[in-house]
Amino acid sequence: MFIAFLAPGVLVAIGTIFLPVIYAIHLSFFKAESFISTPIFVGLGNYAQMLSDPLFWIDFANSIAYSIITVALQVVVGVAVAMVLHQEFVGRNLLRGAALAPYILPTVVAAFVWKWLLDASHGLVDAGLLALGLPLVDWFGAYWTAWISIIFVSVWLWAPFVTITFLAGLQTVPDELYEAAELDGAGRWHRFIHITLPVLKPVLMVIVLLRGIFMFSKFDIIWLLTGGGPLQATETLPILAYRKTFATFDVGGGAAVACAMFLFMSGAMSLYFYLFPLDDSQ
Amino acid sequence: MKRRRSPAAKIGLAAVVALVAIYALFPLYWMIISGLRDRPHLYDPKLTPGPFALSSYNTLFGLTDFPTYFMNSVFVSIITTILTVLISVPMAYALVRSQLPGRMLIVRSMLFAYMFPALLLALPIDIFLVRAGLDGTLIGLSVVYLSFTLPLSVWLLWSFFKGFPFAIEEAALVDGCTRLQAVCRVILPIISPAVVTVTIFAFLLAWSDFVFSLILITNDSQRTVPFGLVAIIDMYDTDWGVLMAGATLASIPLIALFMFLSRYFVTGLSMGAVK
């Protein structure tokens, strides 16, 4: 009976996950002029070409910088919001719900709302700048402002994960620790640095690793906000893989980038499994 | 921890609370009121709602394919959700209850698979489907969505199930229940909260997906809402009123679920159910 329960799921997983990954690896060894033309085996040719392309390294650096900066800011914002939501005040549960709201929105919705707020000709943010007598900014039009916008929106959208995880962790910190520290005359900030953070270090590790893995492979938010532009200024590896495949129809090249990403991410994923082994106990 | 606050601390806390609320909710507020604002006033930098008009919604429903996109999303999300629940619940149950060798390998692969970049799966699946001449159907899209809803569901259910007292199932059998009665009266009541959680997230992930629909859907009439909104941006010279109306409608099912079933969300979200 158990075999019959497992079989459909295992078959679906093989068909939709395992085989596509194998197929992606297979494709990365072939060169094809289009989706339907006959592929020619080129061995590691696509990889050699990829590694000698400066754009690959720029996009690689962009991906790393994007994930490190957004994860760091998500942790700072998420932890700060969690500390506020941990206080007692009227309407706390309502605010806890509200603070999570961005996280459950479809990425497309978040991207378009912010594109509208940051729109260069009619957006509210630039209207605010105008009212304050400040110079207008074409947010998605230049290198640094485009990056700042992407990072800001990414943090807005995904910091709630840090908030909810850290908040759950905060409830496990024993009150006695804080009371003892308070008797010793430790202030709020000291209690946070010397009690909260050390006790919740494992929680933070999970957060950083999981968010790092997810942010490194983010495609949709950047694609929707800037399309990797202006002029590939905000291009990361997933966008490069997409563009190679669908703009230049270089299927093998796109697959090589995707496989390289996966290889790189496997390191972080293995680290996650090593540090947080699955607990089989009941 | 209860503590007395000085008036200054109270004001400070109130200010911070207000700031958090504005930071999280203002963009949503702006989305809703922009969609409902009369079109000649769309570009007024006025923070209060109004003047109200349904003109953007009329355009959305009258002049774009949004109704089709919406029905496509409903169809795909429901099919994905049903398939996910039907496949993952027995699977997770077997993973917890059986002593089959390799069951931990399956659990581990599921969590591993959930961390995969969507693009790594979507690219080869698309090329395979194009070469096989099977690309671009809604049923196909629903099945492909299992590539991320299934790993997540199996993993979440496994984490829930392993703490459940399934041994009472045996007790029920000993007491003379049939296997079916044991499942209906004993098992279903204890697993239903976990199943509700998984149902919500399978729906949420399928409803929100952009990457797979962008890559796999080629025919405009088969676009789902997230990819459809992009078509609306391309079609009209970025009409923000219409787009915000569409974005509002795309968010409503999720916000409604969240408001009424938030306790199920919290467990799933804190386990990383949304990437």
What this model shows, in words?
The complex is a heterodimer of chains A (282) and B (275). Chain A has 282 residues and is mainly α. Chain A has helices at residues 2-27, 45-51, 54-86, 92-104, 107-117, 124-131, 143-170, 175-183, 188-199, 201-216, 220-225, 237-246, 251-275; strands at residues 30-31, 40-41. Chain A has a domain at 53-246: Orthogonal Bundle (MetI-like fold), CATH 1.10.3720. Chain A contains 13 helices and two strands; from the N terminus they run H-E-E-H-H-H-H-H-H-H-H-H-H-H-H. In chain A, strands 1-2 form a two-stranded antiparallel sheet. In chain A, strand 1 and strand 2 (40-41) form a beta hairpin. In chain A, helix 3 (54-86) packs antiparallel against helix 10 (201-216). The longest helix of chain A has 33 residues, at 54-86. The two termini of chain A are 21 Å apart. Chain B is 75% helix and 0% strand. Chain B contains twelve helices and no strands. Chain B has helices spanning 7-36, 55-63, 66-97, 103-114, 118-132, 138-161, 167-174, 179-208, 211-216, 225-235, 240-260, 262-270. Chain B is globular, with a radius of gyration of 23 Å. Classes of the chains: A mainly alpha (282), B mainly alpha (275). Chains A and B meet through helix 1, helix 3, helix 4, helix 5 and helix 6 of A and helix 1, helix 3, helix 4, helix 5 and helix 6 of B.
Task: Pick out its properties.
heterodimer; A: 282 residues; mainly alpha; MetI-like fold; two-stranded antiparallel sheet; globular; B: 275 residues; 2 domains; 12 helices
Number of strands of chain B: 0
What is the C-alpha radius of gyration of chain B, as a whole number of Å? 23 Å
CATH topology tier name of one domain in chain A? MetI-like fold
Question: How much of the sequence of chain B is in beta strands?
Answer: under 5%
Largest interface: A-B, 90 and 93 residues
| Architecture per CATH nomenclature, i.e. the level-2 architecture of one domain in chain A | Orthogonal Bundle
CATH class identity of one domain in chain A? Mainly Alpha
